[in-house]
């Protein structure tokens, strides 16, 4: 669970806040969309949650632990994983090798058992044997994003941050990616946070946060979020 309490952020040379006293709760077992136009602050908010930027003021709690007091390298290595619009697969590694990368970053030796686990993760996102040894350049956009999701699952982190994960995909593949993320949240208890400007992606999520000019818009009686499902 991630709890943002009065989180504000201003660039060092800036004259006004990019985020303005944001309050939001992201829960285990749910998909959350941060919806808003370019410049509304949604990607900055994702960077704060990822520990890539520190809030100018306010508090970020992760399972009641204050993010400002954590080892951020360890936090990003063990507790969160990210999915990007541009996939960000390693071009000289095969699909299965890409999925094994998180374990290697933790200093684990990748042996047959780890490769078998990577295969099962690839199967779970719809990547069959014929694609396991292909390099990213030989995969479609939808296939690359599914490999990226399998890599996230390999990390063991229970928080998934997705920055416009369907932005480079057609409608069919985008729908499939969102469905996979929903299943991961609902069936395996992940906390999934998706930054998007796509209304259809947002509508498929359990909870929607509407961002505008650095604020979380008030969309229900609680003033924090709108429960969609």
Secondary structure: number of strands: 11
Q: Tell me, what's the shape? A: globular
Mean pLDDT: 88
Instruction: Classify the helix fraction into a percent range.
Output: 25-40%
Task: Provide the succession of SSEs.
Answer: EEEHEEHEHHHHEHEHEEE
**Unreliable residue stretches:** 218-229
Rg measurement, Å: 18 Å
**Total DSSP helices:** 8
The chain-level structural class is alpha/beta
Distance from N terminus to C terminus (CA atoms, Å) equals 18 Å
Oligomer state equals: single chain
Main sheet attributes: strand count, strand direction, barrel closure: 7 strands, mixed
Percent in strands: 15-25%
Q: What's the arrangement of secondary structure elements?
A:
Blueprint: E1 2-9, E2 19-26, E3 31-35, H1 42-49, E4 57-62, E5 65-66, H2 72-78, E6 80-84, H3 95-105, H4 112-124, H5 129-132, H6 141-155, E7 159-163, H7 171-188, E8 191-196, H8 199-203, E9 207-212, E10 215-216, E11 226-227
Parallel strand pairs: 3-8, 3-9, 6-7, 7-8
Antiparallel strand pairs: 1-2, 1-4, 4-5, 9-10, 9-11
């Amino acid at each position: 669970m991630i709890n943002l309490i009065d989180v504000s952020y201003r660039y060092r040379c800036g004259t006004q806040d990019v985020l303005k006293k944001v309050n939001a709760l992201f829960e285990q077992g749910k998909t959350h969309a941060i919806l808003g136009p370019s410049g509304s602050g949604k990607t900055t908010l994702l960077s704060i949650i990822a520990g890539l930027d520190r809030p100018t003021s306010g508090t970020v709690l992760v399972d009641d632990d204050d993010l400002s007091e954590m080892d951020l390298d360890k936090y990003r290595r063990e507790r969160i994983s990210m999915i990007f619009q541009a996939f960000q697969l390693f071009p000289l590694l095969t699909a299965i090798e890409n999925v094994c990368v998180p374990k290697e970053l933790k200093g684990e030796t990748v042996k047959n058992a780890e490769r078998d686990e990577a295969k099962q993760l690839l199967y779970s996102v719809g990547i069959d044997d014929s694609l396991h040894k292909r390099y990213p350049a030989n995969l479609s956009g939808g296939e690359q994003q599914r490999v990226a999701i399998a890599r996230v699952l390999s990390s063991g982190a229970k928080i998934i941050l997705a920055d416009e994960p369907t932005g480079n995909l057609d409608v069919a593949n985008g729908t499939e990616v969102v469905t996979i993320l929903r299943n991961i949240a609902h069936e395996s208890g992940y906390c999934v946070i998706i930054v998007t400007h796509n209304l259809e992606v947002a509508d498929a999520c359990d909870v929607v946060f509407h961002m505008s000019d650095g604020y979380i818009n008030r969309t229900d009686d609680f003033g924090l979020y709108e429960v969609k499902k």
